[in-house]
């Protein structure tokens, strides 16, 4: 009987330490995103700035499309994904002095802010919604890559080039 009890205690300790490590990992990532960069603002500060500044540009159709695009993301992470993608879309629209958020802004921001490991699911969702993503294939290379970590608020020149190529 005591061996079974010791086994459960050891098993519980392993599970508890594993859960603490996983939680600590995600907390540390969030902490790093809150660290100010050279300009004095963090990645999350810039994200919040662009979302607040572009809030009047978002119409109901754009909001509904964003909600639909992030629907495959698990509930636990959906708000974070929505804010990250919304921040990137907002930045693109603001830089282009857009009067409203259009499908083109949403597509470019959505592709760039989505991690490469999720592109298969993203393409599946876009196909379900009958949205043609082939004009944006070059942007998939700029997408958030864990191996080559960069700010989703960089790459303005590449996005402008891709837009120019897309409109021609």
TrEMBL record:
<dbReference type="InterPro" id="IPR020203">
    <property type="entry name" value="YneK"/>
</dbReference>
<keyword id="KW-0472">Membrane</keyword>
<dbReference type="Pfam" id="PF11084">
    <property type="entry name" value="DUF2621"/>
</dbReference>
<keyword id="KW-0812">Transmembrane</keyword>
<feature type="transmembrane region" description="Helical">
    <location>
        <begin position="6"/>
        <end position="28"/>
    </location>
</feature>
<keyword id="KW-1133">Transmembrane helix</keyword>
<protein>
    <submittedName>
        <fullName>Protein of uncharacterized function (DUF2621)</fullName>
    </submittedName>
</protein>
């Amino acid at each position: 009987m005591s061996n079974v009890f010791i086994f459960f205690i050891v098993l519980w300790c392993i599970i508890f330490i594993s859960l603490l490590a996983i939680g600590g990992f995600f907390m540390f990532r969030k902490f790093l995103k809150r660290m100010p960069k050279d300009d004095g603002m963090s990645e999350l500060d810039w994200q919040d700035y662009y979302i607040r500044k572009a809030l009047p540009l978002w119409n109901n159709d754009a909001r509904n499309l964003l909600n639909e695009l992030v629907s495959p993301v698990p509930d636990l992470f959906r708000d974070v994904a929505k804010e990250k993608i919304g921040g990137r879309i907002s930045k693109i629209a603001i830089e282009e002095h857009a009067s409203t958020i259009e499908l083109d802004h949403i597509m470019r921001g959505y592709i760039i802010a989505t991690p490469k490991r999720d592109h298969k699911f993203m393409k599946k969702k876009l196909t379900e919604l009958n949205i043609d993503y082939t004009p944006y294939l070059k942007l998939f290379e700029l997408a958030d890559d864990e191996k080559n970590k960069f700010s989703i608020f960089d790459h303005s020149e590449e996005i402008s080039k891709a837009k120019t190529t897309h409109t021609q």
